Amino acid sequence: MLLTLDLNDARPLHEQVAAAIRRAIGEGRYAQGDRLPPARDLAAALGINPNTVLRALRELRDEGLLEFRRGRGVSVAARADARTLLRERARELLDEAQRYGYGREDLIAILEELA
């Protein structure tokens, strides 16, 4: 699993990790039943604390995307629906707009211009 984090992103790291995994599931890089790498391996690859990865995994478990099985690790329970992915991307777009000094209303105006 190739995940990347944006160090300039204001969101907490666990939210970024959860978003990256959610996106990978939604895009089909992981199918239902596929096992994810161990949290320690993900943490080492990302250069973050394993507890941060575990927090992201628990969040996704609570959403119903992942399931934890003792002795078998973490696997994909369901595919993320399009609305969930779209919400995540919209959240990322809003965060990006705020970094450039644009607010929510500015972003809405830009989207309305495109429609």
From TrEMBL:
Pfam families: GntR (PF00392). Residues 11-79 form the HTH gntR-type domain. It comes from the Bacteria. Keywords: DNA-binding, Transcription, Transcription regulation. PANTHER family: GNTR-FAMILY TRANSCRIPTIONAL REGULATOR (PTHR38445:SF7), HTH-TYPE TRANSCRIPTIONAL REPRESSOR YTRA (PTHR38445). This is GntR family transcriptional regulator. The lineage of its organism: Bacteria, Bacillati, Actinomycetota, Actinomycetes, Streptosporangiales.
